[in-house]
Amino acid sequence: MAFDPQSSLDQPLVRPSAEVLNRLLSTLEVKVVWLSECLVTPGWRMELPAHAALGIHYTLMGEGWTEFENEPAIPIRPHTLAVLPPGRRFSLGVGDASPLGGALLVQDYRQSDAQNAPGAPVPVHRRLAGAAPQLIVICGYFEAVFGATIDLF
Fold first, then answer.
1. 127-137, pLDDT tens digit by residue?
2. CA 10, CA 1: separation in Å to the nearest integer?
3. Residue 18 phi/psi, 5° resolution?
4. How many Cβ atoms are within 10 Å of 138's Cβ, its own excluded?
5. Closest Cα to residue 62, out of 39, 85, 81?
C-alpha cells in the first residue's frame, strides 16, 4: 500500500504519554559547542565563519541586520531568533547593509576565557566590532544527538 500524504494530514495528532515523552527526552543530549556575545557598532560589519554545528543567534539589544552567505539582509531587533544550518557563514551589522567588501569596517575581537563566570560549562567568548556597540546578539552553536547515533540537526 502506497503512502498518501494527504490522508495522513487528515489523521488526528497522536500525543505521546508523559512516560514515553520522558523516555525520549532522557536519550536526547544537547551539547553547546561554541557560545559568543557579539557586539556591533554602527558602521561596522561582524563576519563570522561557517561552523560545523547548527547556529542559533538571539538578539538581546538593538536593531540591525544579519546576512547568511549571499542571501539578502534580514532585519533583526530584540528577541529575534535566527537559526542557521551547519556550514553557513554569516554577518551582523547596524545601519545600512552593504555588500561584502563594502565600506563597513570589520573587526573580530575575543576576550580571554579567564573572564568567564566560575563553573561555566562552556566559555562565553566576546566578539566586538567597533568601540560603541548598539547591537548585542548571543551566537551559539549546538549539537543534538538522539540515542547513540542520530544527529538531530
1. 888 888 999 99
2. 17
3. -60, -35
4. 15
5. 39
Locate cell 549539537: which residue? 143
Buried b (16+ CB within 10 A) or exposed e, 64-101: bbbbbeeeebeebeeebebebeeeeebbbbbbebeeee
Q: Is the pTM of this model over 0.70?
A: no
Assign domain 28-113+121-151 to its CATH superfamily: Jelly Rolls (2.60.120.10)
- Backbone phi, then psi, for 92, in 5-degree steps? -125, 150
Query: At 120, which amino acid appears?
Result: A
Chain position carrying cell 549571499: 70
Q: What is the pLDDT of residues 90-116, one digit of tens each?
A: 889 988 765 544 445 555 444 434 444
